[in-house]
Each structure stands twice: as structure tokens, then as C-alpha cells.
Amino acid sequence: MPRSPRPSAPATLRTWPRWATAEVDYETTLAIFTNVQHFASIHYVIQEDGHITQMVRTQDVAWHAGNWTFNGSSIGIELIGVAEDPSHYTDAQYRATGTLIRYLTDRYDIPRDRDHILAHEDLPGVNAARQAAMHWDPGAYYDYEKLLRHAGADDRNGPLRERDETVTIAPSYKSNELGFTSCNPGGGVLAPRSTAAVMVRTEPSDDAPFLEDPALAAVGAEDVVDV
Ligand SMILES: [Zn+2]
């Protein structure tokens, strides 16, 4: 499978564990990552029952982020699951993912916080034209609070956190329910479910237009990106 030697020793790396969702079953995921023609690889795959498979040594770079800067400085974790149906993200999988992140952050001395434990959807494209091709997994219904709890995170992000000039709004996962439009053709509007996401409107009014993503609008894409 595709892999490249890291430019420096892993003990000195700043690494960002990152997770993604597969949307295909375990066997298909392994087949994709072991076929060089897919130009993709991942360090770890975690199944719904919590079983962890390592596919690339952490001292090697895997081709997983869609952004070479992040490939070179991160460890990739793929979750078997379905971004639009959070029932696939089982407690066993949250536990196993958290335990693995706890181990990796200990081993490579990485801060256990949301700035270093990134989702695929957090990673930017290398330029504005590439942004629409970036992924949106593990999806709006993924419970980050639960993952960070299992990972023993130092910083779980309070409801409203201000640091430097960045403000993070992190609503309660359980009480914040939203129904998003499916990214699958004909998928319609999904049933409201618990989410850590917030809808951002252009004005403080329920019927104000949503804020548009300039990177997506720039290439004429709809407000969706691939998983
Ligand atoms: Zn992804």
C-alpha cells in the first residue's frame, strides 16, 4: 500500500490523529487500502465492535488526509461507519478509538485536545479550488465529547470558548438536535438527531439565510463535500 518514510524521527513529530468514516464495510476498506491504484492508505482501521487493525507503521506517512502537510504530520484512523447514521458509531468503537488516541498521544507527546485530535472534516484543502473535494466525515452526528472523554482529553471545549481570536461554539451534544439534508442523491432531509454542529445564519434571526462557505461557492459546488 502507498507509504512514504517520514522526514524526521517519529518521537520528534507533532502529530494529529485524525479519524474518518469508511461508508463501506471492513473487508472493502481493507481491499481499498491495500490496492496501490487507489493511492490511499491509513494507519489504523477501527470496526464497529472496537477491533483495531494497523495497516501502516506510525513511523511511516500514510496517504489519508487529502493534504500532504497533514499526511506528513498526522496519524490516520479510519472508522467503519456511516456518517449519516450515527447508530454505526458504537460505544465499543468510541472506547477503542479513545484508547488508541490516548496511547498515541502519550507515545508521541501530543496534547490531548480538540486542536490536535482532528476530524477529517477539520482538514483544509491545499487551496480554495481543492476545498470542495475535502471530506466531511465523521459527520455532523459524531459525538466528539464522548470521544474526547474516552481519550482522556485535557480540554473538552466548554460551551463557549475563546482563545486568541477564535471563538468556538460547542453546544451540548444530547440536547442540540438538527436534521441535515442528506449528501446522497434523493436522501432528503434526515431525521433530527443529536449533533455537535450549529447552523450559522447571516443575522440573528431564524429565517435569515445560512452563511455560505466561500470555498465551496467559489467552485460552484453545492454545500456538500465528499466523505
Ligand atoms: Zn474522509
From TrEMBL:
Matches recorded under SMART domains: Ami_2
Listed EC numbers: 3.5.1.28
Any one GO molecular-function label of the UniProt entry: N-acetylmuramoyl-L-alanine amidase activity
Keyword Protein transport: no
Enzyme class, broadest EC rank: hydrolase
Domain of life: Bacteria
Alphabetized InterPro entries for the sequence: Amidase/PGRP_sf, Amidase_domain, NAMLAA_amidase_2
Gene Ontology BP terms: cell wall organization; peptidoglycan catabolic process; peptidoglycan turnover
SUPFAM superfamilies, sorted: N-acetylmuramoyl-L-alanine amidase-like (SSF55846)
Record key words, sorted: Cell wall biogenesis/degradation, Hydrolase
Catalysed reactions, semicolon-separated: Hydrolyzes the link between N-acetylmuramoyl residues and L-amino acid residues in certain cell-wall glycopeptides
Protein name: N-acetylmuramoyl-L-alanine amidase
